[in-house]
Amino acid sequence: MCTGLQINYPGGSVLGRTMDIEMSLDYQLNYIPRNYQFAKDLFNQPLVSRYRMMGLGFNDYIPLKDGINEHGLVGITNEFPEFNLYDKTVDPTFDNNEVTYLRSLDLLNYLLGMCRDVSEVIEQIATIRIAQTDAKGQSVISPPFHYMFTDPSGRNIVLEPKNGQFEVKENPYQVMTNSPKLERQYHRLERYMDPEKPEEANAVKGLPGGYDPVSRFVRAYYFSQLSLKPTNQSEACASLYRILNVLSLPVGFLKNRQREDYTATLYISGYDPNTKELFVQDYQNPKVYRVSFEDIVDLDIYQTIPIPQNFKTDLLIH
């Protein structure tokens, strides 16, 4: 599942997401320094970061689910269960110096580690292919993902995979959920409102109330457009977290009977491309924590940092 949303404020923006997944997973903040080998490509060649990056990942593994680099490029991954997304196998006729074959799990790290901004993402993605096996024919884990990116300019794009390559789509609505494709999301949004005049929609009766991707897309866009326009970063973050909390899944709402587990919103993260800050809120802890690159003690080593996950309150009167 998962919902991504960008909120603009004068001179900047914040991009955030709900992480909706099985609750048995642990997660943490990962910091990846420059010149760090974060993975290998499908020809077993090392992938080394050009830029510092940090974000959130699972079970002490390096692949980020969402993150930001030292230049303010921000990206998130969401599930995208469509057909014919990736190559079945690596094509040995491709020149490895011109085309980079990756797992989908490593694409976000690769782009954050190699690109300064959205324009460079667009240039770089033309040289990348995703496959389900490596050059030796061994199966690799390449889940169905699509990706949303922004940078300090506020430009928002979505990368959608198709036949191993990616389509770059400008995203003026600044929302991403899951399937269907972005154009179909826009078309279904228009069933509920005129996107140019969302204030004319009947919010009491007309909005979809489900948690399917289309319903979340419609509500996220509507809430973002009808909320009071933020005048600074603080107000933008408050608006982002209010909206994403409305779209989050409580524990127990969706049960995975095969795994005896629940799908729920594990965390809500946010990123400011201009200040290069990360914000995160755990599902059990309503407090929002903030991290910047300046807070990292040693910028030259890979680090994992736990997120406080117990419910906390602060005294009102000391």
Automatic annotation (TrEMBL):
The keyword Hydrolase applies. Pfam families: CBAH. It comes from the Bacteria. This is Linear amide C-N hydrolase. Keywords: Hydrolase. InterPro entries: CBAH/NAAA_C, Ntn_hydrolases_N, Peptidase_C59. Belongs to the peptidase C59 family. Residues 2-295 form the Choloylglycine hydrolase/NAAA C-terminal domain. SUPFAM superfamilies: N-terminal nucleophile aminohydrolases (Ntn hydrolases). GO terms for molecular function: hydrolase activity.
